[in-house]
Amino acid sequence: MTVEDGLYASEREHMVESQIVRRGVRDVRVLEAMRDVPRHVFVAPEYRYLAYADGPLPIGNGQTISQPYIVALMSELLELRGDEMVLEVGTGSGYQAAVLARLARQVHTIERYANLARYAAGILQELGLDNVHVHTGDGTKGLPDFAPYTGIIVTAAAPNIPRPLLDQLEDGGRLVIPVGSRGGQVLERWTRHGERFDYESIIPVAFVPLVGEQGWKD
Ligand code: SAM
Predict the structure, then answer these.
(1) Is the pTM here over 0.70, yes or no?
(2) Ligand 1 pocket, 135 CB below 6 A?
(3) For the chain, what are the domain ranges?
(4) Which of 49, 102, 183, 192 is a plausible cystine mate for 169, CB 3.0–4.6 Å?
(5) 136: nearest Cα among 118, 159, 155
(6) What backbone torsions phi and psi does residue 97 show, to the nearest 5 degrees?
């Protein structure tokens, strides 16, 4: 390990304790993934000094890498055990997908901007996370080719729940998604029981918009 890697590792440990454990995330597998995945490699060099700070950061195209606590919380809400098929809508930097790669068997992630998808795929490959598959397209329609999913996580703000995402959940599967206006949303978790869906409101959040056929118009 280089001196630089050692410094990042200690910043990461501090991030997990002060931002994530302190706010109540308890899933030990999620905490381990947050301790392991190097967030700084998903961030542009000019923002790297802020890689373990308590907030989102710009990644280009007007988009952001989410706050570490929100990544951990959304991952915990999926209740993954390690043998699942997961879909992420909104690849962005690829960081959330890298965390999910530690928690599930296979991760499909879809991003509407081809340049972000390409860049994220490159980093995920460099990290050797070959159970993550990056796609380009409109994730509001889901990714039916690989459905059903045990978990679906949407990392952009939806005006309503996109019906295709509910349809692509397996029985007992969970959808975690911010829903609300462009200015502010509530993080929701939807759980499938046959043809019935239960939902819980978790916390207020602020995400960039989910733009697509079943989302906001461009
Ligand atoms: N999960 C990301 C990470 O770890 O860096 C953060 C994602 S950022 C908050 C939201 C992403 O959703 C943006 O990259 C945006 O381009 C993408 N997005 C918005 N609408 C989308 C859609 N319909 N399909 C796929 N991606 C979409």
Answers:
(1) yes
(2) no
(3) 3-205
(4) 192
(5) 118
(6) -65, -35
